[in-house]
Amino acid sequence: MQHRSEIRFLLNGRNIALSDVGADDTLLDFLRIDQRLTGSKEGCAEGDCGACTVLVGRLVNGGLVYETVNACIRFLASLDGCHVVTIEYLGGPNGRLSPVQQAMVEHHGSQCGFCTPGIVMSLYALWMQHEHPTVKHVETALQGNLCRCTGYAPIIRAAQEVTNYGTPSAEHLATERDGVVTALNDLRDGKRVEVAKGDSRAILPADVDDLATVLEAEPEVTIIAGSTDVGLWVTKFLKRISPAVFIGQLDGLKAIEVTEDAVTMGAGVTYTEAQDVIADYYPHLSEYWDRIAGWQVRNMGTVGGNIANGSPIGDTPPVLIALGASITLRKGATRRVLALEEFFVAYGKQDRAAGEFVESITIPRVSTGHHAAYKISKRRDEDISSIAVGMNVQVENGMIASAVLAFGGMAATPKRAAAAEAALVGQPWSEATLVAAAGKLPEDFQPLTDMRASADYRMKVAQNLFRRFWHESNGDTARLASA
Amino acid sequence: MKQTVSIRGSAHTNLIHDSAIKHVSGGADYCDDIAEPIGTLHAYFGTAKVAHAEIKSMDLSAVRAAPGVVGVLTAEDVPGVNDVSPTGRHDEPLFATEKVEFWGQVLFAVVAESRDIARRAVDLAKIDYTPLPHVIEADEAVAKGYPHVTPPMTLKRGDVAEGQAAAAHRIQGQMRIGGQDHMYLEGHIAFAMPGEDDDVIVHSSTQHPSEAQHMVAHVLGVPSNAVVVNVRRMGGGFGGKESQMNQFCAVAAMAAKKWNRAVKIRPDRDQDMETTGKRHDFVVDYDVAFDEDGKIQAVDNTFAARCGWTSDLSGPVTDRALFHADNAYFYPHVKLQSRPMKTNTVSNTAFRGFGGPQGVVAAERMMEEIAYKLGKDPLDVRKANFYGDTDRNVTPYHQTVEDNVMPRLVAELEQTSDYQARRKAVLEHNAKGGIIRKGLSLTPVKFGISFTATWYNQAGALVHIYNDGSIMLNHGGTEMGQGLNTKIAQVVAEAFQVDFDTIKITKTTTEKVPNTSATAASSGTDLNGMAALNACEQIKERLVRWACDHFDVEALLVEFAPNHVHVGDQTFTFGEFIKQAYMSRVQLWAAGFYKTPKIHWDREKGQGRPFYYYAYGAAVAEVSVDTLTGEYTVDRADVLHDVGKSLNPILDKGQVEGAFVQGMGWLTTEELKWDDKGQLRTHAPSTYKIPLAGDVPREFNVNLADWSENRELTVKRSKAVGEPPFMLPICVFEALGMAVASVADYAECPRLDAPATPECVLMAVERLRG
Fold it and tell me: Looking at residue A388, what is its pLDDT?
């Protein structure tokens, strides 16, 4: 296969071609240092503050989709074939402000102004989707944007008034759409891309088969989908990730297939891309899904990556294990299917051979039983869970026929609560049964104390959630309206 | 022809922040956005990875040898004094020498061709330590006999023993109050450019350019006149950039002079949070005696603070905790003591409120204790203890409260927030015994305005009118988002009766106004606004004198009208008038100066008038708590706050809203955690959780007391606004307490420690349930 040795993308409507790109070069450094586009700020370099938020437009099934991303943890190489839009591009000629910017000015949405470009980008992306956003929309769009000055109140007011200053269809991002689609299509040549700076190499396989080929040839590469975790290895821990293989752009890993029995999604499906199918087929996960990180990270991060990196505090493994999910691992042309819970062997160790990659995730559809997904964190939004819980209890004739209770944050891996499950099966479906099962939890877990929560709290709240589960299964109010 | 239109942007009008358009378009330049000259080098700190130890050896050879590294700076390379202590106590070495006193202490700096090279190179250092036992908590420091970092203070009035003997009840307790990271979105940064001779120019994100200037001079061993410090704007400060930038400025300047190249230093967020100070954590031991009506008779409290390894600003911070230990309440007999404890942690520093919030929150805890003990609505207890107008109006530091508007404020808020009906509804809701419990609380804030270091209460400004009629405004204050420049420009616009846009606001620089005080203590507008006004008045006086002479009219007939000047029967545009004045050789610029009147303070005696006036406010919060998980939401908050006669009501409202949410963060989700080794584990937004948009009260009604005017002669009768509203959200904290207390039928004060994280709340629920 013929390779290309430069990445090509659009930046604020201009063509950019770069050959001197290393695996660990970030978009934010490229913008601020190489391009002197200093409107995007570095606030944390870990994708948590949103001061670096930019839009990335890419072709999805022939259509152009713009999404917010954190430029600080987005690798430059991964932008091949995309349109990067920064704060400098939103306004018009002669200093004209976009409606979002105008609303922010008129409603006093900036104080120190450092977070403001990022907030404007998030609100802009929201406004393109929702011309009349609700407060809930605004809060969800801003989950990944910190502001330390305003207390957000004026920003929320501004976001709701944008419509008074213009319409999305009149914006140049809208009017230039066809041209951008053509330009992005022109950048697509179906080739593998390999670029390097010094000894730091980045590879963008042409398709999934090519990915399999690359991984067989170089099994020790760093595989990067959304870079929402690997990004931090570089920016915070100064880890070298070369050679890195980028897979987020592979259409072949983005398929979502719904059959009578199950939903199967490619490993490259982002949280955002999965949102609708999750809400449709697993309604108990809908609210939970919106509490995974912030919007920018949900636009970048993938369910496959959340699984493959093996973290004990990933948000999706516990709730997917509870649903009986399985994953397909591929090496070369060989595939194997593994129950998700089997994948997590020990802390930092997964059942993945060198050269093997997670290709897809299959989640059985839900028809019967009681299901719940709970996340407990210090701050409700954009926080890493203290504990995460998936519950799936099947009841027949008032008796519990089966139970899967999976926990994150309670052990070195996402793990089922075997003793508590055993205490449920064969017992009557009642609050007393659930409370008794909760009492078995210390046999299953000896959680740790860390900066997120103490061991005592983890255990206590995990046990109390059995009671929430009971009450909610019976239609009682057992949690806060928006929590 | 008389002009009847008014100018755009006069005082007391709503006006957008002067940089708002640049903020939203990415065109506002912060220090890291300044274009770098060719050859700019980047410095980075190498820090200690141990909390307390003797340094046996420091091998930096591998650091020096790393490709791209230009050199390394240690204590030995300091040309002047190896010290960046802001109060002259000489207790804060820039680079550690023999001893490490906290995890994250600066040992050396590496200077390299790129920031990435510098960051990577610091990890090549080989440091050999002999570990020593370390202390993290303030009460642990007391117990282990750790020293005070600065002399403690005692405030005393009346006879505590006598008050206690006469009281029907007495409660003793302890409250732990957590610290807080500033989490300004723009972290620390300094960017130094060498000049000829001894000269160096430093751009920095600092609230205190003069101190940075003096510190750089001190470290370089050069006079202050060799050093220029500039700051256009900060991406947030909140007190975190009052003294903490000294080390960054000093190192950038040292490196710039040593290698004769521009040098920038910008820590990453983790290093910023590990290596710079925060709000002081406090452990308060309280002892309150009161009568059957809930009226306090005697208070005897001790405030131990985690000050960290050096004094920094801990003296004035712990003093201010005592100055606010009364909040809005009269204590007939009182003794308050501070214990500024040394600990093996980063040296804590200024943070919005400057110790005041910790004093206030402890006062409110006592109100809660009394209310639970007597089975009263805490609001009734608060009202019973408010300062009086003619008696019961002397503070523990013997200043008489002369401007008390609290009873009126609270009465208004109680009504507009529908407090009584909502309290009833909350009690009824909780009586049903569900999983979700509610709480409602109204708390007041009284906050003293002035630096307690009296000499800081001075300011300067420089106003130029160019001969085209355009005006340049410069003053000693710094812009960190609070809208200081906007408000002062409004004052100047009104003085000359010209549109706001006529005035160019320029960067703060030690070249234009010397010996400035920190933009801190909420004093920015009070001090610098008056200095700017003084400059304007000097120029106007000259102009009027000249016009009288030149046009042969009485002074009364020279009038500054909107964008025009009337002189007798003639009318000129402001520009024409200025041009003529220039042609007649009138000095069109002036340096203004201001010092706050009336204030004095004798710390030894604990007596005086440290504050020119007080700012007041009150807030009500309603919360819901999930008693299974400890999670909560703030369902509604109502605020009524006193900013005197506001210079810019919409900007002031922004300060109040922002302070409320920031204060809520301090008391709820913002938790600083150290591990057993003494390492701070919450050192980035991934682990340290400040409020998000979704945490803002579901209904948030913020109003300014529009009837208020400062009874003192402050700038246009306004009041300071930066810090006082930070304490308003104590009502959120107390409302959480009420929801928790409901599980035990309010029989017991829930004694929540701060921050009341969901974990803290759930554990309190479990404790009360027994």
Answer: 98
Q: What total of structural domains would you count in chain A? A: 4
Is residue B723 annotated as part of the catalytic site, yes or no?
Answer: yes
Nearest CA in chain B to A237: B120
pLDDT confidence of residue A477: 81
Q: Which of B266, B119, B257 is nearest to B190 (CA)?
A: B266
CB-closest option in B24, B30, B690 to A120: B24
| Residue labelled with tokens 């980045």 | A202
**Architecture label for domain B281-452+602-769:** 2-Layer Sandwich (3.30)
Q: Which one is the CATH code of B20-25+458-595: 2.60.200.20, 3.40.50.720, 3.30.365.10, 3.40.50.2300?
A: 3.30.365.10
Chain B contact present for A174, CB below 8 A? no
The CATH number linked to A65 is 3.10.20.30
Q: Topology of domain B48-133+188-266, per CATH?
A: Aldehyde Oxidoreductase; domain 4 (3.30.365)
Q: Which residues contact A378 (CB under 8 A, 6 or more apart)?
A: A386, A452, A453, B669, B671, B689, B757, B758, B759
Identify which of B24, B629, B657 has the shortest CB distance to residue A153: B657
CB contact burial B121-132 (16+ within 10 A = b; e otherwise)? bbebbebebeee
For residue B583, what are the contacts with CB-CB under 8 A and spacing of at least 6?
none
Q: Name the stretches of chain B with pLDDT < 70.
A: 1-4
> pLDDT at position A165, please?
97
ipTM over 0.95: yes
Identify all chain B residues contacting A462, using CB atoms and an 8 Å cutoff: none
**Dihedral sign from CA coordinates of B134, B137, B138, B139:** negative
Q: DSSP assignment, residue B400? A: B
- How many A-B residue pairs are in contact by the CB < 8 A criterion? 273
Residue of B23, B266, B646 to mutate for A, most A C-beta atoms under 10 A: B23
pLDDT of residue A95: 84
> Given the structure tokens 């099934």, which residue do they identify?
A61
Question: Which residues of chain A are under the pLDDT cut of 50?
Answer: 483
Helix or strand (DSSP H, E) at B473? strand B471-475
- Predicted confidence at residue A479, as pLDDT, reads 87
Residues of A in contact with B662 (CB under 8 A): 148, 151
Kindly state whether A188 is in contact with chain B, defined as any CB-CB distance less than 8 angstroms. Answer: no
Cβ separation A46–B20 shorter than 8 A: no
The boundaries of the domain holding residue A157 are 99-170
- Cα distance between residue A210 and residue B86, in whole Å: 61
| Nearest CB neighbour to B692, from listed A44, A381, A482 | A381
Closest by Cβ to B629, choosing from A113, A156, A376:
A376
Look at residue B1 in the predicted model and tell me its pLDDT: 44
| Residue A39 distance to chain B (closest CA, Å) | 4
User: Distance between CA B724 and CA B704 in Å, rounded?
Assistant: 13
Measured CA to CA, the distance from residue A304 to residue A118 in angstroms comes to 27
Catalytically annotated residue among B723, B734, B748, B766: B723
Measured CA to CA, the distance from residue B693 to residue A156 in angstroms comes to: 8
Which residues are paired to B57 by β-bridges? B128
Residue-wise pLDDT tens digits, A8-44: 999 999 999 999 999 999 999 999 999 999 999 999 9
Cis peptide before A205 (omega within 30 of 0): no
Contact (CB<8Å) A147/B662: no
- Domain-embedded: residue A469: yes
